[in-house]
C-alpha cells in the first residue's frame, strides 16, 4: 500500500530529525533546494604513513618481486586475513581468474556456468580460455546467480561453476557447492568485489576450489591495479605460482628451467607496499559500510517502490556497491526519472550493468575460427538460442547503484541519501 503524502517523511523524521519544508521540500529537479551540496568522501584514501615504505622500495631499485620480499609479505598477510592456506598476487583480478581457470584445467571446449549480472571480465576470461560462459539466470532480489537455474544449464561439456559475489554480497554457496559435488565440477569464486564478505562464517573466496580478488582503484583494498588467487590446496597453488612466473619450478612443480607452460602475471613490490598500508583500514571500513548499509536498509524498506538488495540467510556482505531496485508501478516514476531526480538532489547514482550478452561480444567469440574448431556447430547454434534471461533483463531495467564511498562518511550522509529518496517519493506526482 502506498504511503500517504507526507506520512513517510514524518515517520522517517522521528529517526533522522529531517522534515523538509518550504523550498527544501520542492524537488531540486523542479527548482527546489537540493538535499545535499557537499561532496561525499573520496576514494581511494591515501595514508601518508605508507610513503616511507613505498619510497624505500622505489629508491632501492628492487621493484620486481624476485628481488624483494614485500609481495610475499602481503600474500601471507592476506591469506591469514581470509583464513586461507595460500594467496598468490597477480597483476589484476581478470588475470587472477585466468590463472585459476588454467591451473584447474578449464579451457578449450569446456563450458563454465556463470551469472549474467556481473562485470564483463567474468565473461571475458571464459571466452579467452576458448570455453563457453553458460549463463544461469539471476535472482533479482539478491542480484546473485539463481541456484535453482544452475542444474538445467549443465551439459556433458560443463567443467566449472564460477559464482560471482556481485556488489560485495555472497552467492548461495551451500547450493552451489552441493551442485558442484553432485556433477563433479570445480568451483572458482569470483570474489573480486567481496573482500571480507562471509558465508556461514567463512570468508568468500575460500569456499570453492580457488577464489579470485581484485585490487583495482575502486576496490575496498586498492593499489591501482592488482589481484590475487587464494586456495587451500598446496599442489594447485604451487602450479599457480609457477604459471604466473613464466613456468619456473616452485614447490611440487619440479624440473629444470621451465617445466610447465607459464606466463608473466607478477605483481610489483611497490604495489604490495600500498596494499599492506590499505589493509590496515579494511576491517574498520568494512564495519562502517555494513553499519550504514543496514541503517539505510531500515529506512528504504518502507518506501514504496524501493527494494534494497537482499542478502541470503547465512551470508554477510561488504557493500562494494549499495544497490536497490526501483519498481515503477509502486514508486510512480520510471527508473530514469528517479535517477535524474536523485542526482539533482546531490546523490550520485548509476544504473549498473546492462544485458551485456547483447553487446556483440558473444557473436564475436563464437564466430571466431577457434570456437568453430572447439565446439560443434549444433552446440553453438543451441547456445545462441539459450541467450534468454528474463529475470536478469528485469534487474538490469530496475537496479540503481550507489558507490561504496557514500557509505564511508557519517550517519548524516546516510540521512541525506534517505531524505533525497523520500523527497522524490513524496513529490512523485509532480516529477512524473
Question: What does this protein structure show overall?
Answer:
It is a single chain. The protein is an alpha/beta fold. It has 2 domains: 147 residues, Aspartate Aminotransferase, domain 1 (Alpha-Beta Complex), CATH 3.90.1150; 230 residues, Aspartate Aminotransferase, domain 2, CATH 3.40.640.10. Helices cover 40% and strands 13% of the residues. It is built from 16 helices and 15 strands. The strands form 4 sheets. It has a 7-stranded mixed beta sheet with strand order 1-11-10-7-6-2-3, sandwiched between helices. The protein has a 3-stranded antiparallel beta sheet with strand order 9-8-13, with no helix packed on it. It has a 3-stranded antiparallel beta sheet with strand order 12-14-15. Helix 5 links the parallel strand 2 and strand 3. Helix 3 packs parallel to helix 8 and helix 4 runs parallel beside helix 5. It is globular, with a radius of gyration of 23 Å. The N terminus is likely disordered.
